[in-house]
């Protein structure tokens, strides 16, 4: 009898232990599941209101499980009950700050968009006025002054608008930095809405197109081109940073993908137009002095064109004569190349990888050969004239001597 009682107590003890063990395990699992659900909700929250709802869920979870604090302190090791809640509360706080920044950013985008729209209208009007004036073959002094003033205003406006559009692109970049690398559909839609709200694609396309048009209708200094090159590179760098992410967002949307492709090609065209305009400006320096060089679009072609021109001139030194050869040399070398091309254009061309130092050295070696040829020709003529004079003197002396001999006889 006594043995049966002891056995019954033992069975009851074991059963109770298993029951409580199972209860503790289930309690811990329940907490972990709800905790993970909150973590997921924080990561995927799409608004400040959702964050507020999540904050209520965190409070509820804490209240529901505070009685199991000692159990969870052991089960969550190396974390504990308090540190686990601190972690998700901090994560929620970061997510809430993201949405606060997005609200502020949206206000900034609205302001930027308004400024960009105003400048777009002004620039369109300026481009039209400049086009009308440029179309006139002859311009009086007042029209020339007006044209210069319009170009200066357009340059300033385009520069200001470029910075504003770059700020719009930068604001989108900030949005991408805040977004997870693997965005869900709701997050993608948020990005699409921001792009649409800021008229992003149209503004980027328009600012590049206006810059291309500005290059076509105005004459710029080497420093102007250098500044625009730097501006284009920086703008393009920013665009590339968000271009790939935008492609992901618009993966299933034909219109967005098309806009991105157009913008990528416009950046390439902008760079090509600047390169072509720079070489045209160099070529015009010689053309204005009636020196016609073979067409060139890069440093190798420029060096080859100069070399071909000088080779022809060296061959024709004797044919053209000393005075004409020297005059052409001075115009080419002193008035154009060393005064303007070498000092102002070549540093910018080399800086932008449009020409090499070797190209410059080849050109200047060829100019030195031309100088030697002209100098040699000049010396030859001097010696020839001196020889004729000497022969004449000797002839006179001989004739004079014969006369004296005849007289003496």
Mean pLDDT: 78
Q: So what's the overall shape?
A: elongated
Query: Gyration radius, to the nearest Å?
Result: 41 Å
Low-confidence stretches: 4-22, 377-387
| CATH fold name of the largest domain | Delta-Endotoxin, domain 1
Number of helices: 13
**Which architecture of the largest domain per CATH?**
Up-down Bundle
Q: What is the CATH class designation of the largest domain?
A: Mainly Alpha
The topology string of helices and strands comes to HHHHHHHHHHHHH
Largest sheet: none
Q: Tell me the helix content.
A: over 70%
Q: How many extended strands?
A: 0
What structural class should be given to the helix and strand makeup? mainly alpha
Number of domains: 2
Note the beta-strand portion: under 5%
What is the rounded distance between the termini?
188 Å
What is the compact description of this entry?
By secondary structure, this protein is mainly alpha-helical. It folds into two domains: 92-285, Delta-Endotoxin, domain 1, CATH 1.20.190; 289-408.
List the helices and strands and how they pair.
Blueprint lengths: L1 H42 L4 H18 L3 H7 L5 H55 L5 H38 L6 H13 L2 H18 L4 H28 L4 H34 L11 H17 L1 H4 L1 H30 L5 H52 L1
Helix pairs in contact: 1-2, 1-4, 2-4, 4-5, 4-7, 5-7, 5-8, 7-9, 8-9, 8-12, 9-12, 10-13, 12-13
Give your account of this protein's structure.
The chain is an all-alpha fold. The protein contains 13 helices and no strands. The protein folds into 2 domains: 194 residues, Up-down Bundle (Delta-Endotoxin, domain 1), CATH 1.20.190; 120 residues.
């Amino acid at each position: 009898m006594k043995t049966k009682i002891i056995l019954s107590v033992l069975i009851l003890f074991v059963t109770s232990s298993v029951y409580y063990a199972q209860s503790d395990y289930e309690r811990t699992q329940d907490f972990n599941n709800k905790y993970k659900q909150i973590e997921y909700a924080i990561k995927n929250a799409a608004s400040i209101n959702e964050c507020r709802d999540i904050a209520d869920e965190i409070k509820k979870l804490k209240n529901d499980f505070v009685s199991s604090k000692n159990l969870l302190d052991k089960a969550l090791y190396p974390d504990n009950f308090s540190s686990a809640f601190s972690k998700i509360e901090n994560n929620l706080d970061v997510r809430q700050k993201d949405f606060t920044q997005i609200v502020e950013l949206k206000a900034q985008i609205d302001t930027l968009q308004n400024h960009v729209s105003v400048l777009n209208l002004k620039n369109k009007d300026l481009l039209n006025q400049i086009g009308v004036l440029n179309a006139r073959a002859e311009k009086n002094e007042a029209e020339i002054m007006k044209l210069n003033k319009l170009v200066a205003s357009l340059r300033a406006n385009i520069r200001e608008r470029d910075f504003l559009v770059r700020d719009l692109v930068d604001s989108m970049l900030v949005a991408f930095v805040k977004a997870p690398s693997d965005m869900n559909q709701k997050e993608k839609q948020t990005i699409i809405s921001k792009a649409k709200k800021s008229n992003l694609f149209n503004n980027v396309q328009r600012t590049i197109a206006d810059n291309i048009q500005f290059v076509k209708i105005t004459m710029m200094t080497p420093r102007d081109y250098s500044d625009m090159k730097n501006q284009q590179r920086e703008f393009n760098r920013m665009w590339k940073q968000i271009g790939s992410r935008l492609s992901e967002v618009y993966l299933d949307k034909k219109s967005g993908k098309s806009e991105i492709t157009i913008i990528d090609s416009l950046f390439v065209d902008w760079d090509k137009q600047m390169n072509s305009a720079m070489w045209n400006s160099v070529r015009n320096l010689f053309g204005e002095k009636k020196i016609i060089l073979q067409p060139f679009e890069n440093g190798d072609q420029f060096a080859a064109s100069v070399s071909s021109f000088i080779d022809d001139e060296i061959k024709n030194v004797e044919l053209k004569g000393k005075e004409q050869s020297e005059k052409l040399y001075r115009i080419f070398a002193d008035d154009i190349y060393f005064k303007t091309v070498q000092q102002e254009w070549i540093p910018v061309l080399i800086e932008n990888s449009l020409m090499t130092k070797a190209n410059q050295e080849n050109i200047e070696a060829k100019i030195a050969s031309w100088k030697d040829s002209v100098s040699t020709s000049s010396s030859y003529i001097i010696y020839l004239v001196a020889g004729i004079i000497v022969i004449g003197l000797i002839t006179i002396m001989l004739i004079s001597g014969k006369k004296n001999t005849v007289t003496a006889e």
